[in-house]
Amino acid sequence: MVICGCCTPPRSAGESLALGGAKDGLVLLGPDPSHEQVFAFFGPEFSLWRKKPSAATAVLSDLAKKKLPNIAKTLLRCMQDGRVEVNVYHCSVAITACEKGHKWQLALHLLSLMPEMNVMPNAFSFNAAISACEKGGQWHVALGLLRQMPQATVAADVISYNAAISACEKGGQWEFALMLLSELPQRRLVPNRISFNAAISACEKRGKWLLALQLLSQMSEMRAKPDEISFNAAISACEKGGQWERAVGLLSDMSQMNVHPSKVSYSAAISACSKAREWEVALLLFSQMPTQRIAPDEVTCSAAISACEHGGLWQQALHLLEGIHQLRATPDVVSYNAAISGSRGGPWPTALRLLSGMLQLRLHADEVSFSAAISACESGKQWQLALSLLCHMPKTKVSLEEISFSAAISACEKACQWHMALQLLSDMPGLRLQPCEISFSAAMLACMNCACWQNSLDLLSAASLQHVAPDNFSFSAASPGHQQGPAAPPLPSPDVVLKQKEGYIRLLDEQLKQGQATLDQQRKQQSEYLYQQAQTQKKQVEMQIKQQVQQQEMQLLLQFNQSLMQVQQSASQQKVALEQQAMQLTLEYQHKQTHEDMMAQMKFSQEMQKLQTMATVSGAPGPPGSAGPGPDPRDPRGGSGQYGGSQVSGGSGQYGGSGQY
């Protein structure tokens, strides 16, 4: 028989949700529906859930998969109102929904509500809450929950510690991560691969390459075989620590331990070699990727482009940049910055073309992008283009930096534009930029090329007042005796020397006043900075105190709920004991009463039998004075026996007419 779709009986809300068919209904409910809406949606299923609690667990699991923690929380309340027993599995799955939905506060709230629901949390409940805090970046709360588990008479397992270590890793707390890892053997727990990977990643984020390598070596001793994640974290730690040889060595160790390297492995190793300016090794590793059947991505190409930059291989850098487009991937800012920096050894239009390509791809060019392009214009003596790029930076919301001004001043110096170089140098303090050694040296060299010795001396004096130490070449540029040219200028007259001396004295006085004013301003700025720093520290301390108070309140709330649960359990046990005692006493009383009734009935029966027996023996009593029946001739006792006529039938006998009966 074929049943059409219209004749099929409709599924209930819980069955549809478990099968994934109530998605439209949940969408209509929204992410945070009211209590009445949830009760109306799931209420028809409560009768089934009372008989089969696992059906409610399946529905809550579906809510966790769909990342709907608010509905899961409201559903627990609706189950209580609908007289559906809420067990530890229901609460734990609801906390898991909070974890997947990145609602760590809601997870803690549900964990604290479990004693009020007469449900004691178990390891699964705490693990889900710790994982929620991990994903929320609340490493200190995760540690607090881990420490509260023994107080709640719940034994922490490896999963609990792994979640706490991962929380410390994401929070950059490598010390706490290693401390938790060392506690596992003390708790008679064996750390697994996840434990070590989280600890190595925590060390990697802080550049603790030596600790990362030690943990990697301990994995084999603890029978936890390192995997791709373990090696990748260790290689990244060596990259951040400047240990390119060890990074390359770990890459080769992966093949020996039957661990296949990935794109992340090669990218980290190539980046380590690039940062150490070992561009030959970096390019060699990049060329080995196809033999390992690993396709480079934009991250790997960016690291190789950086290596080409250090090696001056601007053509190969451009080729790699084009290769990213062939991989149907979009180059990022790092890739373009490395390519622009590498193109400084080539024609300057290439750098401008790359910068224009970034803007066409809607990539946000940063200070490095513009500074590298300005440096390329400097190499090509295109000072107008360099100044144009410098002026274009604020329009693209890129902040001006010292390196950008230094590159523009160097471009003006190579083009003998000393006036523009001095103008750029004088504009830097107005933009709250401190001229550096490169800025002063380029400006002095520009003045020297145009034989402006007085300006060179002024720049040298200004550099000294600003505590900038120019190099030897800057001193040479400021000294008239080191001028370049076929002939030296004639010696000045004594009057000219006297005037120059007086001018230098006035200049020194002015510079002294300016220096004093600068010191006062710096002192004021430093005082303001210290005050701001003190305020910041005060806020941090207040925040820490607030967090500690919240943790203590949470601990007290958990302790109170646990005590309340224990009191309720004790009262329930006493009530059951009293009910059993009362029932026993009632049964004893009923048994005794039944026994007494039976005894009275037996006594009554005995009396009746006795009466019947006596009545049977005596026969029917005659009238008073009448004689009884005669003696039986067959009676051997005769008439004078015990039942003879003189005794039985006579008037004076025991059963005679005048007798008792």
Biggest sheet architecture: none
Query: What is the CA-CA span between the terminal residues?
Result: 94 Å
Overall pLDDT score: 78
Low-confidence stretches: 1-24, 472-493, 622-661
Based on secondary structure, the structural category is mainly alpha
Task: Find the count of extended strands (DSSP E, 2+ residues).
Answer: 0
Number of helices: 31
Residue fraction in strands: under 5%
Radius of gyration from the CA trace? 50 Å
Assign an overall shape. elongated
Q: How helical, in percent, are the residues? A: 55-70%
Coiled coil: 505-588
Pfam families: PPR, PPR_2, PPR_3
Biased composition (Gly residues): 638-661
Protein name: Pentatricopeptide repeat-containing protein, chloroplastic
